[in-house]
Fold:
Amino acid sequence: MARRYPLDMDTYRAPVRDARFVLEHITPLSALTALDAFAHAEPELVDGLLEEAGRFASEAIAPTNRDGDAEGAKVVDGGVVTPDSFKQAYDGYVQAGWGAVQHPAEFGGGAFPLTVANVVKEFITSANMAFSLGPLLTTGAVYLMQHHCSDEQLQTYVPKLVSGEWAGTMNLTEPQAGSDVGAVTTRAVPADDGTYRITGQKIYITYGDHDLTDNIIHLVLARLPDAPPGTKGISLFIVPKFLVNDDGSLGARNDVEVVSLEHKLGIHASPTAVMAYGESGEGATGYLVGEPNQGMRQMFTMMNDARLGVGLQGVAIAERAYQQALHYAQDRRQGRGPASEPGEQAAIIDHADVRRMLLTQKASIEAARALCYANAHALDLGHHADDPVVREQQTKLADLLTPLSKAWATDLGVELTSLAVQVHGGMGYVEETGVAQHYRDARIAPIYEGTNGIQALDLVGRKLPYDGGAFVKGYLGDLRSEATALTDDLAAIREPLLAAIDELGTVTTWIFEHREQPNDVFAGATPYLRCFATVVGAGLLARGAAAAQQRLDDGDTAPYGADFLAAKVTLARFFATQLLPSVHGLTGAITAGADDLYAVAPGALAP
Amino acid sequence: MKVLVPVKRVPDTAGEKKIDPNDRTVDRESVESVLCPVNEFAIEEAVRLKEQHGAEVTVLLVGPESAQPIVRKALSYGLDAGLQVTDDGIAGSDALGTARVIAKALEAEEFDLVLFGNQSTDARTCLVPAAVAELLDLPSLTYARHLEVDGDTVTVHREHEEGWDVVQSSLPAIVSVVEAINEPRYPSFKGIMAAKSKPLAVKSLADLGVSPEDVGSGAAAATMYEFADRPPKEAGTIVEDDGSGTAAAQLADWMAEKKFV
Ligand SMILES: Cc1cc2nc3c(=O)[nH]c(=O)nc-3n(C[C@H](O)[C@H](O)[C@H](O)COP(=O)(O)OP(=O)(O)OC[C@H]3O[C@@H](n4cnc5c(N)ncnc54)[C@H](O)[C@@H]3O)c2cc1C
Ligand SMILES: Cc1cc2nc3c(=O)[nH]c(=O)nc-3n(C[C@H](O)[C@H](O)[C@H](O)COP(=O)(O)OP(=O)(O)OC[C@H]3O[C@@H](n4cnc5c(N)ncnc54)[C@H](O)[C@@H]3O)c2cc1C
Structure:
């Protein structure tokens, strides 16, 4: 039978122009290149990088997405084998060096702002989310090691992780220790030679084993014999798959094995491993990172970076699915459109409801992208701004935005890939088109790297109280001033935006007033996070719309083109008038308190 | 050894190209300019010569000042230096005029090997490499699908309709490569960063000693009088097998009618 749906579903075009627009007009790169640390990240160079990274993602990585889903990762003879197409793609990735963009120059990195590196991550993730997880974990490992390892450890491991020749993993989770990392029981016992013997089981370890690199550097949370209970008694260890000799060559195979891989809803090509440490002897050889019992504190240094990386996955996967939906909507003909000739079937994109779905995807993706890039921008300024006051403020801003990016963007990832399936009608539900894969792949992102429920608790419990609440109030004030300054030709954006900021102010006040009843606050934390993020996203789109309108008024449209700029204004208006008002509907849930949630006993919830 | 790679700036192969009705040249505003994709194969071959023989590679572009990003782009694959010939007098050159400029530029350089693309993706005349070889009176090895350098000998597999010939020549020589020769790598992140600080020389016609009468629109041997847009693609004929056993005959008739058989 002929294929019903001829679109090559591996097609992905990196949205380089969209990214460039955000970097120019919403989260300005110029604020970063003004700093010594980033003076080398000139706009033309960044344009060239994004262009090439986009081409690499689209041509070299995107075609592996479908195979990866169908083949999946497998355990063969005790080792994990990745899908065939992954080897060449990964070698190409290492050769091109895209993993090095954000890392320090002293380890062979490009020392670029996270704001730029994350665009590259977005492209690679859209191209193949399951593939991208390996490099993401490696980046996380470098980030962590760079801040806490000894010089010797740095020299031994980090350059090869930066280049991608070796890979890294993060081993936190155990059967009884998921959201509750403090419950970790993996043991580390000091040996005579200053190393440690690690024994225990870790579960859900992403890329816990694979055949893409010669060595894998596991970062493992474990407890020393005399450690205090809970999070205060956790230490961080380096456990390489192969021990590294003094001359840098690979030595003995360490006692760390993959027990099995999980069968999952999505990201089939990303091995999710059960790992056994010290199964066949007195323990795997581990090296302590920094001081004992500092593991949780050390993990925190990479938390913003890692959580933002997962937030970006929501943007990336939604973009990939959207591109496919847009293509399909122009191809598939059904029914009559507003301008159809009698007897002629219109492309479904001519139907208002299909347009609604496509614009919802596009506008939401742009809002979430802007939020994630703004988050990276704040992290960059927080680390590198010259003025210590600016550094402190920007770090707080990044801390505030991180749970928003992680949770909102990944929830949108699920919702928007679902809409992309919907645009395809029945063809969306059959696997043939490939759009169903994006929906399945997207579903993990709200779960790992701190569930979205935990993100909401982080927002209300840890971030709102900054400076006794003054920080967040100041931030809301900034949002309001920027919205108020929108000119009258953008009143259609300004008015709903101001109304939504008022609503956010009201529910924030409610939360402060109820801080003595934390469970009432926790009850509404998830809808509160959504309200907050939706408002921030709308504000950032409005900033972009104002810049786009200005350029249109000035006739200064290069290199974007007038149509592109006009679309930015329309999408921001669509978001402000049709999506943003949803925040008013969240207030009831945010301020209801916990009473009803507990009024029904679990037994009574059963049918 | 020293290798020169002449590269051309062309309108994006995937983009809709337009011709400016006033001067009947490509409307550069309407479409993005890119490094000619055929040149990526020559660049890859040059990078391999760097890896194997420590070759020093210079990229050469004849084109307006605005084409400089294309030189940088070529450098981002890891080449060593750039040379751009820019002069208002070059505008409107035909293939021979372009070849004259390239030949003069080469004369001023030391080289063992010149690696052309066999054609460009816009004008596609395939004339430039052979013309340059003729002008410089050097061996011309065109359509290379395989290349090896050993001492001062270059061996290429020269592609043609029936297969390929093995052709050998002493160096220096002029080679043009076809896409079958290799699979080009992507420019690396490091390569892109390094490209901006690679030396790039710019020369004019006067620097090269090219007489303005020999190049430019005035010297072009061919003149474009008229052009028309490509006609829109028509739907193809579909022969359906309705089970009556006539499909093959219908297909044969159609092929005969179109003179394919
Ligand atoms: C595909 C995949 C890859 C993974 N990769 C890694 C990895 O590389 N390394 C690693 O260490 N881990 C990894 N994980 C583990 C992942 O981080 C955990 O699954 C996650 O943190 C949630 O823990 P859990 O599964 O135990 O869920 P639980 O903690 O049991 O959570 C169940 C539900 O209860 C909620 N909940 C839990 N505690 C609270 C609370 N205090 N307040 C309110 N709600 C709460 C959660 O939000 C969630 O909805 C991976 C998991 C998967 C599925
Ligand atoms: C719209 C249009 C209008 C034109 N008008 C005229 C005209 O009026 N009269 C006329 O005679 N010709 C005209 N040309 C042809 C034009 O002059 C040729 O494109 C040019 O001279 C090179 O020929 P080619 O592209 O066919 O190169 P080819 O011989 O197909 O290219 C082979 C290789 O030569 C090298 N090369 C080619 N050009 C350059 C360069 N500029 N710098 C460095 N290396 C290069 C590259 O390695 C390339 O892969 C026109 C072309 C176009 C597209």
Observations:
- The pocket of flavin-adenine dinucleotide (ligand 1) is lined by residues A 170-173, 178-179, 204-206, 264, 272, 444, 447-448, 451, 453-454, 457 (CB under 6 Å).
- The mean pLDDT of chain A is 96.
- Chain A touches chain B through 20 residues (CB under 8 Å).
- The domain at 167-293 of chain A is CATH 2.40.110.20 (Butyryl-CoA Dehydrogenase, subunit A; domain 2).
